[in-house]
Amino acid sequence: MTEHVAVVGGGPAGLTAAIYTARAGLDTTVYDAGEPILARNAHLENVPGFPAGVNARTFLDATRQQAENAGVEFVEARVERVAGTDDGFVVETDAAATDTADFVVAASWPDSSYLDDFELSRIDRGSKTMLGVDEFGRTDRDGVYAAGRVARQSHQTVVAAGHGATVGLTVIDDSDVPHYHDWVAPEGYFTGRDRDVPPGCEEIGEAERREREQASLDALAALSPADPPTMHPSVEDDD
């Protein structure tokens, strides 16, 4: 039976963690209660790969599409409680739904009250509360992880996404899925050295490489113009 990962939060950290776990073959669900804080950014200018920056909403839309392409399922609901069971966790949402999971990744900010059933280390920073984790994103509860800002990472998109990748790989390591690297290599990279292709890796020929490259360019070209930034809720609307 395939293990299931529940990711709470649809920002850069949660989406990236989900991409990695889904690509490794774990059933992955992202619970997204609303617009990520990154949507408030006017123009995202410090993420590698975008020489002139990128619209933050476009970045989020593209990352979500990438997660969907990897097989991630999305639930548009707020997680109200995560409780432990004999063989995992139950995830309760405000949509009166209950799901089960083998692993839970907290990637929401700033709320993590849905984890109050567990005795987790927490760090108060002013009005915000963060979760204590080890260097790989594990909390004090086996099977519960935290990624991004809620795990005391810098309030920067690329840092949050990178930490999401770290946590995603940690979940994979803690699962029953064999895994080496998530890496697409040119044909012969491993087999040309009389090596088996390691778990999680893939070899592709030149024709397939060109096809995937064109598909990536087409996907970028198909991105729709994004919405303007969302103002901080504490700023009064004069309209």
From TrEMBL:
Residues 4-40, 61-164 form the FAD/NAD(P)-binding domain. Residues 208-239 are annotated as: Disordered. Keywords: Flavoprotein, Oxidoreductase. InterPro entries: FAD/NAD-bd_sf, FAD/NAD-binding_dom, Ferredoxin-NADP_redctase_2. Coiled coil: none annotated. GO terms for molecular function: oxidoreductase activity. This is Oxidoreductase (Homolog to thioredoxin-disulfide reductase).
